[in-house]
């Protein structure tokens, strides 16, 4: 019994010393990049001019697939998968510059920029969270995707997508707390009584 009291006292001391907020789990997901936010990546991407910007100029701008992290080379097959995901879309539906890259196959190049910074932070009541009754999570960050197609080391096409301002709130409530999980276990017991 003394051991139980000591454990509870130690836990209470830790909670009061560190504060409840610091005991919540957090999740931080980052890709290494020269850009610290969506706006700076977008501003640099907007400087790329199709049929003018060369591969060497891209490298000077920070879009170097050989040296910059999280930029990957794509084959013409990868490009086909992105632009022709199903038979209802044909090459005739595509931008002429995209069609040209697909048709010239290995003679053309493409690469994709994939950046994100996502922070997941739990908040709310620590005891309700720990025992599984109520979990609240706030997600913030940004996600940037860029696609660049080149022919003869000159950009022929570019495409930008992403989420400049991610902000989501998620709340999971289990009125029975940890007992809520027993429902799945009971249904899996062989030869159950019910």
Notable characteristics:
alpha+beta, elongated, 194 residues
Q: What does this protein structure show overall?
A:
The protein is α+β, with helices and mostly antiparallel strands. The protein has a domain at 31-116 and 142-162. The protein has seven helices and five strands. Strands 1, 2, 3, 4 and 5 form a five-stranded antiparallel β-sheet that branches. A hairpin with a 2-residue loop joins strand 4 and strand 5. Helix 4 runs antiparallel to helix 5 (96-104). The protein is elongated and about 80 Å long. The two termini are 39 Å apart.
Q: Largest sheet, if any?
A: 5 strands, antiparallel
pLDDT < 50 stretches: none
Helix/strand/pairing category: alpha+beta
How are helices and strands ordered from N to C? HEHHEHHEHEEH
What is the number of helices? Answer: 7
Summarize the structure.
By secondary structure, the chain is of the alpha+beta class.
Give the helices and strands, then pairings.
Blueprint: H1 2-18, E1 26-30, H2 38-46, H3 55-60, E2 71-74, H4 76-83, H5 96-104, E3 108-123, H6 126-130, E4 134-151, E5 154-173, H7 182-188
Antiparallel strand pairs: 1-3, 2-3, 3-4, 4-5
